[in-house]
Amino acid sequence: MQEQRRLDDQASKADKEHEQAMEGLRTALESARTAYEHMEADLKESDANLLNMTKQLDNANAVQKVAAEALEAANLEKRRLMEEAKSREEEVSNLRKDLAIAEDGRKEAKARKKEAEARLASAEADFRGKLPQHRGLY
């Protein structure tokens, strides 16, 4: 009977150890479940942050694309304006040359006019000098 009691005590002790071990496993399992839930929540938050960052990157890329297109358009407009300015400078240069030629022509024409007026005056004087002097005719 003592042997039975000893066996019962050992069985009881084994049951208590088993119960404590099961309680430790339950606690460990609960801790693992809690840790998993926290990790899952962190992962969802990370996914949301990643999605937000991806959207921000897409927006930044779109803005950069629009800015690049605007810069290209501005460069094209600048090039067009510079070509127009060059064309106008050439036009102004040509007009100045034409004006200088016209000015020279005008000076030359004035000089020829003066020469012609002088020859006319000389011719009139010669003509008058060669006319007979009749009184009363003039």
TrEMBL record:
Residues 1-21, 85-118 have a biased composition (Basic and acidic residues). It comes from Abeliophyllum distichum. It comes from the Eukaryota. Residues 1-23, 85-138 are annotated as: Disordered. This is Myosin heavy chain.
